[in-house]
Write a sequence for this structure.
């Protein structure tokens, strides 16, 4: 079961990638950010909201100058977006983007299939000018971004989640469809050749990082609260495109790109509705006072309406600017007044978030998660005790508690892990048989998500084995003689690789017993002891050291701690 060179799949579909259920118009949410939100949602349903909350706020308010005035499509490649994602969201969502440059159509397909085989979420930029079933075909350039959720290598088709095939692309809901290998390659090449006049092609993939702890609504609002406090102290900066436009008109900047600025004001106003929508959604979901929410909503509406009036006047002034002199001064007090009104909105928002007590909520959630991760299986069949950090399991001579390919009645002290989490477990194991029989196994167990079990430890007091019952006649992955007494065992998992170690004394170095990878991810790991014939048996586990993603944990198996 050690992994060799992986065999390439013929068909693979990632069922986690599902259609969206929002009703945002294309004016509010473009075909670049919506598929990224959908891909984020495939890892955690809340990430659709959280991603859109962050990107809509950071872009429309140009937080700390991360975004420049936009230019009209098709030049929307968002080169600044990936820097923003890496610096702001990567460590929060534990998601990472990578760009994949390809030199030929064959290389393009091989790289996409390789990413999908590794559970990567693939996003391919394309030009609808080259897509035969779209209305833009051979008429005009139109940038679009394709979600690739799978492939069929023999039929040479990609399974996609898209909207172009639904109602001529007007549908806001992404639906399943398929496109040929050659068709996807053609729209990707057309994107770079017609928009950028170059033959350097690429696509993007998204992967979970090693740490898979999911970011929550509570953490999102608390992070926003901290940002608003920084604004108050002058430690962060936000932009208002309306104020920038007024300043450029007032100073008669001849080089100012007023077309780009006017476009940016319009796009940002539409995109900003998503920031407010997600903000109020999270406040309501986390139990904020409905009357306070209603008051905050009224403040928001007043701010938005006044900015709309100001943009209308600015648009007229920008048009007149090209014709001759203008007078911007009558509009400046309105801009200053709405900036102050928006500041009052932020103050009210901070007060409401503060009342939610999010720090206390987060600590309570984390405590419940830590406790929920620990469980005892089949403890009713044995006597469990704990004293001064030593866990003792006593088997009765009148019952059998076995674990194998089908049987699963052995007592197990388990810890659940999330996707791709690294972990380590070390302990001292000492077995005392209370009769002549020696039909037992004791040590560390790993349960994989496909039902496979890995049993590492002492067998019959004669050997140290690593067993995989599901492999049937090849179930013993390795065996060494056991020299009696106590033994220290350790299992480490890092980025898909497992290492099994042992030693007989803490003064000795760890001995690497087995190293390998397995097809499925870990669901649980922990301690176990089993008998396959009735016998009296006492097993002690002590000096337990447990960590998940390098965080040292105290075991929380509820065995009446003293």
């Amino acid at each position: 079961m050690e992994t060799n060179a992986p065999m390439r799949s013929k068909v693979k579909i990632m069922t986690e990638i599902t259609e969206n259920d929002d009703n945002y118009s294309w004016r509010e949410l473009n075909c670049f950010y919506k598929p990224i939100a959908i891909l984020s949602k495939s890892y955690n349903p809340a990430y659709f909201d959280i991603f859109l909350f962050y990107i809509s706020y950071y872009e429309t308010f140009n937080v700390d100058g991360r975004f420049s005035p936009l230019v009209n499509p098709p030049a929307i490649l968002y080169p600044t977006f990936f820097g923003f994602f890496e610096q702001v969201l990567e460590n929060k969502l534990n998601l990472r983007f990578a760009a994949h440059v390809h030199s030929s159509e064959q290389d393009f397909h091989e790289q996409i299939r390789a990413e999908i085989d590794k559970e990567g979420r693939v996003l391919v930029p394309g030009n609808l000018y080259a897509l035969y079933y779209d209305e833009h075909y051979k008429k005009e350039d139109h940038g679009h971004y394709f979600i690739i959720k799978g492939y069929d290598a023999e039929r040479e088709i990609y399974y996609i989640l898209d909207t172009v095939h639904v109602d001529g692309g007007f549908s806001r809901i992404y639906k399943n469809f398929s496109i040929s290998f050659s068709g996807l390659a053609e729209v990707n090449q057309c994107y770079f050749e017609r928009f950028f006049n170059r033959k350097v092609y690429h696509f993007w993939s998204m992967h979970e990082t090693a740490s898979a702890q999911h970011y929550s609504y509570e953490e999102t609002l608390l992070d926003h609260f901290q940002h608003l406090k920084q604004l108050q102290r002058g430690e962060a900066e936000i932009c208002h495109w309306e104020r920038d436009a007024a300043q450029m008109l007032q100073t008669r900047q001849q080089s100012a790109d007023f077309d780009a600025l006017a476009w940016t004001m319009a796009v940002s106003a539409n995109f900003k509705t998503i920031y407010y929508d997600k903000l109020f959604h999270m406040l309501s979901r986390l139990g904020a006072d409905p009357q306070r929410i209603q008051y905050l909503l009224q403040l928001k509406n007043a701010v938005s309406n006044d900015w709309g009036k100001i943009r209308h006047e600015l648009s007229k002034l920008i048009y007149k600017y090209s014709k001759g002199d203008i007078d911007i001064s009558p509009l400046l007090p309105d801009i200053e007044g709405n900036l102050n009104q928006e500041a009052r909105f932020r103050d009210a928002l901070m007060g409401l978030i503060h009342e939610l007590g999010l720090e206390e909520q987060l600590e309570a959630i984390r405590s419940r998660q830590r406790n929920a991760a620990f469980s005892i299986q089949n403890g009713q069949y044995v006597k469990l005790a704990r004293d001064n950090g030593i866990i003792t399991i006593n088997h009765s001579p009148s019952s059998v508690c076995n674990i194998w390919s089908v049987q699963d009645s052995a007592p197990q002290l388990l810890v659940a892990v999330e996707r791709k989490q690294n972990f380590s477990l070390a302990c001292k194991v000492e077995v005392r048989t209370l009769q002549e029989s020696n039909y037992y196994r004791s040590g560390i167990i790993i349960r994989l998500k496909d039902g496979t079990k890995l049993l590492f430890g002492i067998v019959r007091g004669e050997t140290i084995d690593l067993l995989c019952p599901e492999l049937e006649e090849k179930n013993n992955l390795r065996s060494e003689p056991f020299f009696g007494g106590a033994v220290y065992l350790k299992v480490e998992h890092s980025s898909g690789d497992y290492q099994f170690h042992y030693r007989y004394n803490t003064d000795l170095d760890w001995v690497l017993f087995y190293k390998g990878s397995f097809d499925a991810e870990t669901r649980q790991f922990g301690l176990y002891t089993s008998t396959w014939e009735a016998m009296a048996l006492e097993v002690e586990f002590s000096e337990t050291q447990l960590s998940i993603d390098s965080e040292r944990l105290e075991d929380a198996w509820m065995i009446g701690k003293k």
Q: What stands out?
A: Residues 1-7, 71-77 have pLDDT under 50 and may be disordered. The CA atoms of residues 342 and 409 lie 63 Å apart. The chain has eleven helices and 22 strands.
